[in-house]
Amino acid sequence: MRKFSKTMTSAFVALFVFFSGILPAQAQVAFDTGTLTITTQAGKQLEFEVEWALTAEQRARGLMERETLADNAGMLFDFGETRMVTMWMANTPLSLDMVFIDEAGGVVRVAEKTTPFSEAIVGSGKPVRYALEIRGGRAAELGLTAGARLVLPLDLPQAKTP
Questions:
Q1: Signal sequence span per UniProt (predicted)?
Q2: DSSP states of the chain as a string?
Q3: Is pLDDT of 18 > 70?
């Protein structure tokens, strides 16, 4: 029988703990909040009160296990660099719209009404720096489509040092 390395064993244990629900869901990750503004192609200003997902741990947690989300609330994922992004809906009971935004603030794709609890991959389609998750169907209600612009610079919280 093959022996697993310590790294592989640790990775499997971490995945087991994460997916088995042994750790309390929301108690493990805290998010700072702020306001962001997006201008639609029609010139309408949309304001969202968002939680900032800035660290790998925060991005991994995202909106998992949330059962409600206010109309003008969401979560902004900052990946720290421009790259192809893939996301999924595992452990997320809400349908979400995923708004993929490039480094310059341009909305490049809106994945509307994603399927709750789905493990299907939702991709950005193009390299992006940010992804904004809002309540499913909200983008269409607001006229938020590709071509809209995130108002930059963002007032992100400063990185916390240990």
A1: 1-27
A2: -PPPPHHHHHHHHHHHHHHHT-S-TGGG----EEEEEEE-TT--EEEEEEEEE-SHHHHHHTTTT-----TTEEEEEEEEEEE--EE--TT--S-EEEEEE-TTSBEEEEE-SPPTT----EE-SS-EEEEEEEETTHHHHHT--TT-EE-SS--PPPPPP-
A3: no
